[in-house]
Amino acid sequence: MYGVGDVDFFDRVAPVYDLAMPPADGGALAAALEHATRPIERLLDVGGGSGRAAAALTGPEITVVDASIEMLSRARRARGLAGLAADAGRLPFGDASVDAVTVVDAFHHLPAHDAALAEAARALAPGGALVVREFDPDHPLGRLLAAGEHAIGMDSRFLPPDDLAAAMDAVDLDPRIVDRGFGYTVVGVRR
Questions:
Q1: Domain 4-190: top CATH class
Q2: What is the pLDDT of residues 137-158, one digit of tens each?
Q3: Which candidate, 32, 93, 30, 94, places its Cα nearest to that of 63?
Q4: Beta-strand runs (E) in 53-171
């Protein structure tokens, strides 16, 4: 799911990750999920790590999917969340089997963006929503974040919101740029 260096990094920092990261904005995620045209009963939090974003949501059955075993262990122990070690480019879920997928602050760590988007679209039922919360590399703080992650050896690849929306459209998702800025949100609804 992540580049090899990224997985190693997250395995090492898992015990202190939540101390350094602010909580996810559950209200903003819930608002983005409202773009779905079907009820959301089953949600995958891809690249969900310690469950920071999943813990901010209420309602659906949530499974955290991540390549870092240590981060998933933290999601299970600290938050009681269901977790599954898997690659975002090969999700072990059936076609049209989930109502929503979130990728919060993690898309830039995925080495195969197109494969991850195609897999999310495949797993989504019609009317389901993919919500990606990401950082804009064209924003001054985004450039700084990208430089910092590369300086510590991460394989991060950031996309601007318009490029992510175009990539969602290419895998049969109806994209909507919900907000812009250093952190931005793009929602793709399964056609």
A1: alpha beta
A2: 999 999 999 999 999 999 999 9
A3: 93
A4: 61-66, 82-85, 98-104, 124-135
Domain ranges (residues) in the chain: 4-190
How is 11-74 classified by DSSP, letter by letter?
HHHTTTHHHHSPPP-HHHHHHHHTT-SS---EEEEET-TTTTTGGG--SSEEEEEES-HHHHHH
Residues 6+ apart with CB under 8 A from 191: 126, 172, 173, 174
User: Is there a contact between 51 and 79 (Cβ–Cβ < 8 Å)?
Assistant: yes
Strands 173-179 and 61-66: unpaired
Q: What angle do CA 162, 141, 155 make, to 5 degrees?
A: 75
Q: 């608002």: which residue's tokens?
A: 31
Closest CA to 115 of 170, 154, 36: 170
C-alpha span between 102 and 9 (Å, rounded): 22
Tell me which residue has tokens 């804009």.
136
Each residue of 85-137: pLDDT tens digit? 999 999 999 999 999 999 999 999 998 999 999 999 999 999 999 999 999 99
Q: Tokens 């600290």 map to which residue?
A: 78
* Measured distance CA(6)–CA(153) in Å, rounded: 8
